[in-house]
Amino acid sequence: MGISVPSSLKPVLVAFITASAMVWGLFYNSSSGNSTALTTGPTQALAPGLGLPGALPALHLLHTRFGCLPWSRLLVGPTMLAQEGFVVDAPLASALAAQGTRGLCPLLCHADGTPLGLGMRATNPKLATVLRRAALAPTPDLTGKVLLSLLAKDLGLEEPLAWPRPSLEPALQLSVPQGILFTTPSPSAGPELLAQLEAALRTPTPSPAPCPQHLQTALISSILATVDNSGSTLLLTSSLNSAFGSRYLSPSTGVLLRNLTAESAHSAWACPLILRGSLDDTEADVLSLVASGTPNMTTVMTRALLSHLLEPHTQHQHQVQQEPTENPSTCGSVTLLQAAAHAEHAHVSSVPRGCCPFQGL
Question: From the record, what ranges are coiled-coil (predicted)?
Answer without folding.
Answer: none
